[in-house]
Amino acid sequence: MGCIEELKYEVLLSRATFKECREYIKDHYREQYTVKPGYKIFDSYIIGVPPILIGVDNSHVVFPYTKPCHGTFLLRIEGPEEIARLRAVKK
Amino acid sequence: MEKEGIPGPKKALLLLGCPEVPVQMGIALYLCHRLRKDGWDVTVAGNPSVLHLIRVSDPARHYVDRITGLDRCMEKLIEGNAKPDLCLVFAHNDAGLSYAATVGSVTPSRVVAIIFGRNAEELAKTIEFPCETIVEKAVHNPLALRQKIDKVFGWAASKS
Fold it and tell me: Which residue in the set B18, B78, B96 is minimally distant from A45, CB to CB?
């Protein structure tokens, strides 16, 4: 499994709940995708409470990332390939 | 090794959270003991600290059959390479519930969330996904939580 922490990321929300992450994405991004828990992004699996929303902000993806000891963070990471994959899955 | 046509023991997975709440490790070892006594094959998954605690607490493996890293365990569940019959997910924070929701979503197993810690009741109220729960505001003293677990799994001493 990959390590998201090794990528260049921006933290939009810290120690948030999945509901807060969902609301934030709903309020801030027009392009959104709903994925199931276990969806693979940046070679890591999303651990979370469904429905899990992923937002697209130009060339960046915005998604929740859970660390067992620290809670859930809403991250923004550049990922045109991940965006293309999300768009392809929706078609 | 499993003989052809003869099913092996049922598999139980205990998924532990960050070991910052003392009751977690005691309850986990207790569950391993009871489940093994009932013929279950038990695996415990956790972060490196959890695994070190188990190695130190149960060096001769009297209680725990096998241990695995949390990421590796989730990977196997998500990819369908591990199919436990029972998953017990320990949750004392929102992250724990996220793991319970994910396990419930990717496996057909019976999933029971053991919700404990100072804010157990408030935390349980935030659950928005189908899940069996055992809830107890336990931090240092595991007895009340153990009692609830005993009731759920039929281990409570009969009064008759």
Answer: B78
Question: Residue A38 has which token pair?
Answer: 């276990």
Tell me the pLDDT tens digit for each residue of A23-43.
999 999 999 999 999 999 999
Q: Do A68 and B101 touch (CB under 8 A)?
A: no
Closest CA to B75 of A20, A7, A3, A23: A3
| B71/A1 CB distance under 8 A | yes
B81 to chain A, closest Cα gap in Å: 13
Averaged pLDDT for residues B46-67: 94
Other Cβ atoms within 10 Å of B77 Cβ, number: 24
CATH number of B11-152: 3.40.50.10160
Q: Where are the domains of chain B?
A: 11-152
Label residue B4 by pLDDT band (50, 70, 90).
low
pLDDT attached to residue B5: 57
**C-alpha–C-alpha distance, residues B97 and A47, integer Å:** 10
